[in-house]
Specification:
This protein is 25% helix and 29% strand. It is α+β, with helices and mostly antiparallel strands.
């Protein structure tokens, strides 16, 4: 059996960047002691979710890759001998920024990067103000623990993104995430949104026959502009198997670590009984390249 122990980190963030980074490092060390070979952090873990407002001062949070943060996490990955997935606000050039995931190999080298492709622009999630859409495509990052299909948050709603990664040979889909409730929504609506978020990702696992790791942040973060009621990040980080089965899940309001054993042989077995790739009608999908069929 080809087995891999994966770990994810779910935590809250403060306005103190160095404290956030320190917390990340401590939790990575903890999950590594549980035997995790692959560790995934949440989206934009170095800071609070600054995209609730459009404020040019937040561009000062962006950093180059490689840079100070990648140097710190590179050293940690090498020391712990783990493959590590982190998430940064990347400054590519003056006036050009991305929401970027960085994957470190066990020797501390950068195995690859992924720039978020789908950029939301909604109340409380003004990411289009900060991030240029990614230009690296849907290309898995090759590591010593397998080919990782790294995507980021809003990407998780798009079956095309998951499919493209799977078609390129991804063995695991990974989603660093920052998503939560509007405190003004009633409890029923909050539950519907959380359920939809999990259902769509479990569907990606089923449709592609591969496991998924999703690491979300937790805790309340106020909107500095007071235009909205802020965001209650709903946690609920999870790992699912190739048939969409939930292997492990965190709570909605606590900082937690998850360590889960994945049987990577299950992908081939699942695709043998559900041969979706075989039966795809690729000769009939041209209209997928249209915005809408009028």
């Amino acid at each position: 059996m080809k087995s891999l122990k994966v770990g994810l980190v779910q935590h809250s963030c403060t306005t103190d960047q160095q404290e956030n980074i320190k917390k990340c490092c401590e939790q990575i060390r903890q999950i590594a002691t549980q035997g995790a070979e692959l560790v995934v952090l949440q989206e934009l873990h170095n800071n609070q979710y600054f995209c609730q407002t459009e404020d040019i001062s937040h561009f000062d949070l962006a950093e180059s890759i490689p840079g100070a943060t990648t140097q710190k996490f590179s050293k940690l990955a090498k020391q712990l001998e783990i493959v590590l997935v982190i998430s940064l606000f990347e400054k590519r050039a003056a006036g050009l920024y991305h929401n970027t995931a960085v994957v470190f190999e066990k020797d501390g080298s950068i195995a690859g990067t992924y720039r978020k492709m789908h950029i939301p622009d909604d109340p409380g999630y003004y990411e289009n103000f900060y991030f240029t859409p990614g230009d690296l495509g849907f290309t898995p990052i090759v590591t010593s623990v397998g080919k990782l299909g790294v995507l980021i948050c809003w990407d998780q709603w798009y079956p095309e993104a998951a499919r493209m990664m799977a078609l390129a040979g991804a063995e695991i889909l990974i989603y660093p995430t920052a998503i939560g409730h509007d405190p003004n929504d009633n409890l029923a609506e909050q539950q519907r949104q959380l359920d939809a978020w999990m259902i769509v990702q479990r569907g990606h696992a089923v449709a592609n026959g591969i496991p998924i790791i999703t690491a979300n942040r937790v805790g309340f973060e106020a909107d500095p502009s007071q235009a909205t009621a802020g965001i209650n990040f709903w946690g609920s980080s999870f790992v699912v198997g190739c048939q969409g089965e939930i292997l492990a899940q965190t709570g909605t309001d606590t900082e937690e670590l998850l360590a889960v054993n994945l049987n990577l042989d299950n992908s081939e077995k699942t695709r043998q009984i559900w041969p979706f790739f075989r039966d795809r009608r690729i000769d009939q999908y041209q209209d997928l390249l249209k915005r809408f069929r009028d």
